[in-house]
Design a protein that fits this description.
The chain folds into three domains: 22-229, Rossmann fold (3-Layer(aba) Sandwich), CATH 3.40.50.11540; 232-326, Ubiquitin-like (UB roll), CATH 3.10.20.600; 331-428, de novo design (two linked rop proteins), CATH 1.20.1440.230. Helices cover 41% and strands 12% of the residues. The protein has helices at 22-27, 32-38, 42-52, 64-70, 92-99, 101-115, 129-145, 175-182, 212-216, 218-224, 226-230, 264-269, 307-312, 331-345, 351-368, 375-387, 403-406, 408-417, 419-428; strands spanning 78-83, 119-124, 160-165, 207-211, 233-234, 237-238, 240-247, 253-258, 283-287, 321-326. Helix 7 (129-145) links the parallel strand 2 and strand 3 (160-165). The chain is globular and about 75 Å long.
């Protein structure tokens, strides 16, 4: 098993215990990318990011440079950084804000310069106590160093950055709900159109929303060039990406891997990465891109870690979270717990999500506790089809945001792949793994 060893773009400093400090950041080339960006034009910075073909790392995968260039004709008022990483088993942004906050801040200022905005908000999940503390401390140090604030490094460009802690709502990871929260309102997603942030965003003004990991790539791209970034990976999936590996593996953690040239098999089983499944057990299933993604079976383990390759196979890379389930995992329980999370985190604005998620969770719990009926399987799929017609991926929209139509993916995957397991729960009145 050969695992490529690409340059570490956003985890290069992680080996240092003081990677979060300004002193370590400056000693390892920190803010050199910003100086280089400020020495050129905003259009040239956007062109480099566009040449890198940097796909957004928050889940949607839209090219960052293209998003910026589309807005060139209509000046942007605000830049908002989405750090509300709240999906179960997703923790790669958590690592970045705790271990390398100056890299995030430098990337944010580069993006602000490219977009010519003077006000930035970094929205972080409220539970990231240490991350919030370190980002705020790094921001204070960056102001003192002259990397943020008025007349940055004598360039004439000025920007202010505000760190805003969220209140713990998963729904605020959806960009328009995040903007509502920033405005001091309840985190309800907005109807799109017309409320695409690029047109009507924060406080009604054009706004760009980018993810923490997306921003963290910008210093390296500015120093090394967009072409060097695009030379890594393959197809549309260029560069490296952070993958949060969780579940039944010997070495769970966050790994920076070259896209496309690395496979799920590499990530899960390579000794230098996941290290395989403990206790000599076998792979039963894995979730390739966060718990809202459809599941894959062992026959898809050799798929490359690429945006299009995973999409063509019927799922998504999404948030970069890979969850591994061994052959002793109860598929019913796994799908029930995922459904319970989404039911709890539904904002309640749309009927299919508000009501449907609760119905699904109660039926799943009934089956898991050995009180289910065989007709419950058809009832589950029928309710899922009402929330996401056709049960296809990408899901059909029946709600304002994608949370609702994402709920059926785990149930549909579990029933399709492990129907016999559901029948054992129903006919034998309990879980076969207990």
């Amino acid at each position: 098993m050969a695992v490529t060893d690409p340059p570490k773009i956003i985890t290069a400093r992680m080996g240092h215990d003081d990677s979060h400090t300004l002193e370590r950041y400056l000693a390892t080339g920190g803010y050199d990318g910003l100086r280089k960006a400020l020495a050129t034009t905003p259009e040239a910075v956007t062109a480099e990011v566009d040449a890198a073909s940097l796909l957004g790392r928050g889940g949607a995968g839209f090219p960052a440079g293209r998003k910026w260039s589309m807005l060139r004709a209509a000046p942007v008022t605000y830049l908002v950084v989405n750090g509300d990483e709240s999906e179960p088993a997703t923790f790669k942004d958590h690592l970045l804000v705790e271990r390398d906050p100056h890299q995030l801040i430098e990337g944010v200022v580069i993006a602000a310069y490219a977009l010519q905005v003077s006000q930035v908000f970094i929205f972080l999940r409220g539970e990231f106590a240490l991350g919030l503390e370190r980002v705020q401390a790094a921001l204070n140090d960056a102001y003192a160093h002259g990397a943020v604030g008025r007349d940055i490094f004598g360039s004439g460009f000025s920007v202010d950055i505000v760190v805003h802690p969220g209140a713990g709502a998963y729904i605020c990871g959806e960009e328009t709900a995040l903007l509502e929260s920033l405005e001091g309102k309840r985190g309800f997603p907005r109807i799109k159109p017309p409320f695409f942030p690029a047109a009507i965003g924060l406080y009604g003004d054009p706004t760009v929303v980018n993810n923490v990991e997306t921003m963290s790539n910008l210093p390296w791209i500015m120093l090394n060039g967009g072409a060097a970034f695009a030379a890594l990976g393959g197809g549309r999936s260029t560069g490296t990406r952070l993958f949060a590996l969780a579940g039944h593996v010997n070495n769970p953690g966050v790994f920076e891997l070259q896209m496309v040239t690395t496979t799920f098999n590499d990530l899960i089983n390579a000794p230098v990465l996941g290290g395989g499944i403990p206790h000599g057990r076998q792979l039963k299933a894995f979730i390739p891109g966060g718990v809202s993604a459809p599941w894959f079976g062992p026959d898809q383990i050799d798929l490359p870690l690429g945006q299009d390759e995973v999409a063509e196979a019927g799922s998504m890379l999404g948030s970069g979270s890979v969850v591994v389930m061994d052959d002793h995992t109860c598929a019913v329980r796994a799908a029930w717990r995922i459904t319970k999370f989404f039911s709890r985190e539904s904002c309640g604005q749309c009927t299919p999500c508000r009501e449907g998620s609760g119905w699904l969770e109660r039926i799943m719990e009934r089956i898991e506790r050995g009180q289910g009926r065989e007709e419950d399987l058809d009832l589950l799929l029928d309710a899922c089809d009402n929330i996401s017609p056709g049960l296809t991926w990408p899901p059909q929209q029946t709600t304002i945001c994608v949370l609702g139509p994402s709920i059926p993916s785990s149930i549909s995957s579990a029933i399709t792949m492990f129907r016999d397991e559901f029948l054992v729960h129903i006919k034998e009145g309990g879980c076969p793994y207990e």
